């Protein structure tokens, strides 16, 4: 039926050629590919900065860089990884998969899609060019707290405009995703039949629209404080430096879920496929995701317990933070129940998804510990928090994105990737990521502050182990590049369904799919939904 | 490179790192720091107990959840002939794993709330210490005694931490955790500690006291401590505050009430002596030798020991038109600050300011070569 029709269409694909295909692209797959390639490049740029940090921290004393440059490394590493690697990778996956998953030919607003991608290279050119300016690159932390950030030299307006551009790009991407899902679902694709990845992305998109303008407002106030004589954050002029932290984290906490929800969506697709069993508790997954997103707007001050809030404020933010553990727990239990009594196989995507399940949960536990205000007074701004958010961000989110790449790569390219290399990538990454981040818990508890280029000699041994883990993790990621290139160039032909247990509209299309995904909308029934 | 070779390379890499890691762990785990300190105050003990309680709770939850996952992974696999069940929800299970975590969370919230309320009782203090963060040192005001102590990284650590210093950090005792002027606090006394800052946000943290608090310019935060055991307790700034954030440690000497009183008297006497020093004429040699010390402690972290500054961030003093210009302009700038340059009016006395200005005007390739007397500085204030 529609299968044949789709295949017929493929012969009428008229792909633009040359550089114009990419510069002027309005195709969700090409734009998705550009997002993913961009994210991978940024992942290695941000990773190179992490390697500089770990090289300097390999032993006490200053060996390679000056403290100011070290601070630039930690600051720009975070900005590049968050805004350059993880967020674009999430949008790239959304671009590729959402039209295929909801049965649409393309995104709802293809030209805006082009613009939201092409803003990114310009934004990062602005940001990274600050390394060559008077005063150097931003060095006040990615959180940009005033008054420190206002001490930055010529780079400050570049940092602020880069953040504005990134916000514009994200908001356009989010509007596009919402418009696509709300308007372009195939007949029968009701909201409660949407694949979980689509659900997590709709919720992420609403979070983006709500949170990014707040960040833009905050950094604009920094700009006027620096150049136009306002005193929003200057106590001497009647302002309040802590107000910036409130504004920033009102964006910053939802941002955490902007980063993590797509990863939750990805593993919610992958675990049922390889357990050969429907996702456990679909409806409760949707409600749990929505609850997490809702609650994320009421917990921001747990990032700043040490600024000195009234007792009532500290108690409120502690209780609200603890409440997030409930829906998060529901999700972890649902994934576990999906695997329970399944018939599991462990191809690379499943390995990475299980890695997410274990290590994100670990990061969740330390998150709960830090939500307890009185003990957070000790944990705050130490390596304990560095361990926590890296567990959530790397084996929690980056592994989720990588599992999605392995899962859909055969669909995108039409070739199976090299399973042996994929497994090597998983095991080297998993071992090294734990050598890298686990000892940071010990360092933090023992009293090593974060964001320092040099440390007391009692911390040397752990730092050396951490650095070895870091270098190994960095090298392991080259395997991913190799696997992807090899898979794009050729390999065993992938079937349309790709995986034995795979369900969903994207697996009814050919591998690789036609240039315009569904030119005839497919019919969706309760039986075909709910993979 | 063939796949086999890559396999070998990766295997080699993993083996080496595992060996290194496990070797290091087994060789030195006894000496390697692992856990939060129990500290020396009731607050720190309560915080430690709370930390351990929550750590045990999440560990038990973790063991249960991870065991279930591992059981499925080992037993419900296709290669073992497992056939997938097709159930996809269970209202009872879903209600259970919503309600049970809520109960556990409430059980955690109760002791946490009690500890937090205890920590916020800042009233009834017997003495008050005001801590002010500067880039990159601390100022301590003993409010009831009129004593002020400036505390910065000690000279041994400061020498060793310079890039390519050639001094091994291992050779410096308490590397980066020692200061020139430690503060002294009495034990068994409820001390109110106010934190604030002069330039950017800092955070005052001594782990043994059980808390840290931001020091925010324009705002004063209220905290307290009551140290139970005499000893030396070390800490660091915990909020990124610029270039030398990693180099502004805190050292607290906790002593008996008698020793504390004696120390306060000593400080008062020293302050008087320093004030009288400002009223006499100094020789050039005196000024230069004092100036060199003041420069190393207050100026070198930005303007560098060479006087050449850091390009684009901190201007050079070597050959500077201000340093070689009229002395009055230079005194004015140092007293009042400019842009990133802090105002030293409060930080240094007349003699130290005169000494450091004389030192700068006579050092490197500078041509001014004149001397500035404490009286000149006093007149310019």
Number of strands of chain A: 0
Radius of gyration of chain A, in Å, reads 23 Å
Shape type of chain A: globular
**Remind me, CATH topology of the largest domain in chain B?**
Immunoglobulin-like
Query: How far apart are the first and last residues' alpha carbons of chain A, in Å?
Result: 21 Å
Helix-strand sequence of chain B: HHHEEEHEEEEEEEHHHHHH
- What would the average pLDDT of chain A be, to the nearest integer? 93
- How much helical structure, as a percent, in the residues of chain B? 40-55%
Total individual domains of chain B: 3
Largest beta sheet of chain B: what is the strand line-up?
A: 3-2-1-5-8
Count of DSSP-assigned helices of chain A: 15
Strand content of chain A: under 5%
Assembly of the depicted chains: heterodimer
CATH architecture of the largest domain in chain B: Sandwich
- Specify the CATH class of the largest domain in chain B: Mainly Beta
Describe the structure in your own words.
The complex is a heterodimer of chains A (531) and B (381). Chain A has 531 residues and is mainly α. Chain A contains 15 helices and no strands. Chain A has helices spanning 2-10, 20-23, 28-56, 67-102, 110-129, 155-183, 196-227, 241-275, 282-295, 311-339, 348-371, 373-379, 383-413, 419-446, 460-489. In chain A, helix 4 (67-102) packs parallel to helix 13 (383-413), helix 8 packs antiparallel against helix 11 (348-371) and helix 13 packs antiparallel against helix 14. Chain A is globular. The two termini of chain A are 21 Å apart. Residues 1-11 of chain A have low confidence and may be disordered. With 381 residues, chain B is an alpha+beta fold. Chain B contains 10 helices and 10 strands. In chain B, helix 2 runs antiparallel to helix 3 (91-119) and helix 9 (350-362) packs across helix 10. The mean pLDDT of chain B is 88. Classes of the chains: A mainly alpha (531), B alpha+beta (381). At the A-B interface, helix 4, helix 8, helix 9, helix 10 and helix 11 of A face helix 1, helix 2, helix 3, strand 7 and strand 9 of B.
